[in-house]
Amino acid sequence: MGAQLQQASSDDEMTQVSDINVTPFIDVILVLLIIFMVAAPLSTVDIAVDLPASTATKQPRPDKPVFITLKADRTLAVGETPISRAALAASLASVTSSDHTKRLFVRADKTVPYGDVMTLMNDIRGAGYLKIALVGLESAGAQPASDTPPAGGKK
User: Fold this and answer.
1) In whole angstroms, what is the distance from residue 15 CA to residue 67 CA?
2) Alpha-carbon distance 8 to 14, whole Å?
3) What is each CA distance from 104 to 65, 87, 131, in whole angstroms?
4) DSSP summary character for residue 85
5) Angle subtended by helix axes 88-96 and 114-126, to nearest 10
6) Alpha-carbon distance 84 to 69, whole Å?
7) Distance (Å, rounded) from C-alpha 68 to C-alpha 83?
């Protein structure tokens, strides 16, 4: 948007222009928009999370579950038998009779870092087992499933 310059009189005095030049205003708004677009995702990084205990209802246990245990010292055990990480696939094949549709239960010590648990789960998936369940402690607030809706909500 440009301003018009007119000569109102014959003397060399110019008239006052009352139009606003909005170009700098638009530039500032676009810069602020870019700053907020870059800063918004960065503000959600490194959030400290203290996850609560699960209040899910207890699921029925299979007849003969296969537990894979990751201990605090990072050693593995399938059932009650300690194994090495290299022997994981062979041990799972012998315990499950090579039935890759069988559900495996992973339990890890709470001091084991999340990355180590994910590495174990990736090793299990690499061995061909896709049904993996995580085992945890039940909290005291676990309630059995019922047909009554929770307070303040719909079922």
Assistant:
1) 88
2) 7
3) 7, 16, 6
4) G
5) 60
6) 12
7) 10
| C-beta separation of 135 from 107 below 8 A | yes
Provide the 3-class DSSP secondary structure of residue 106.
strand
For residue 69, the cross-strand partners are: 77, 107
What the block records as the tokens of 78 is 């399938």
Given a cut of 90, whether residue 107 has pLDDT beyond it is no
Q: Which residue has the higher pLDDT, 34 or 42?
A: 34
Cβ burial 112-123 (10 Å sphere, 16+ → b, else e): eeeeebeebbeb
Is beta strand 81-83 parallel, antiparallel or unpaired with respect to 76-78?
antiparallel
How far is CA 11 from its chain centroid? Answer: 73
Mean pLDDT of all residues in 81-106: 88
